Amino acid sequence: MRLIIVGASALGTHLTRSQIRQGNEVVLIERDEEVAKDLAEELDCTVINAEGTRPDILEKAGIEAAEAVVACTNHDQDNILIGMIAQEMGVKKVIVKTDDEKFMEVAKKLGISSPINPPHISSSIITDALRDVDTIQLSNLIRADVRFISFLAGEQHKGKRIHELPLPEKTEFIGLYRKKDFILASENPKLEAGDELIIITRSEHVNRIYEKLQEM
Questions:
Q1: What would the pLDDT profile of 73-116 be if each residue is shown by its tens digit?
Q2: Fewest CB within 10 angstroms: 13, 112, 123, 176, which?
Q3: 129 belongs to a structural domain
Q4: How many domains, in total, are found in the chain?
């Protein structure tokens, strides 16, 4: 896989090393000249010293041939902008890191399919540990080609019952997040714009699900 990682943050650097070990072709973009120079000498990948929010730099990095773009600078606004540019350029997998939960919501509303919020994830795990709750992480549950995905309901879905939405075979709704509340799919709730639907499916159906739900 060919991917572009923007931002040599702790997460970006660790991710770059792990992807290189897995045999993927990585291009790392970092704005800090000294950091970029040091990493270029250390890592077995292309390192570009430039501003990753610029479309011409992303083109230089070969975004037209990239299968994924990960924006993990230390600036949430930059990450969201990079994600939007990557989506506009037709990249299939766009992953954006946000440290502020408010920007997480912004990213979702802009249609970025994979925003992540490391502080929220870490905080949830620590909170459970303090309560002596043995949380089973989702990554430990996923096997074979099973996938958990989320979809943000729009105005066209408003008022429909969750079970009225079309899904392919071997796919089910788990529930939805509405602001801070979680509603199980078994309650068959009426949808509101902004609801985040949680779906379990097979990897082969992921693209079809997004296409079906977006076309409504």
A1: 999 999 999 999 999 999 988 999 998 888 888 888 888 867 88
A2: 123
A3: no
A4: 2
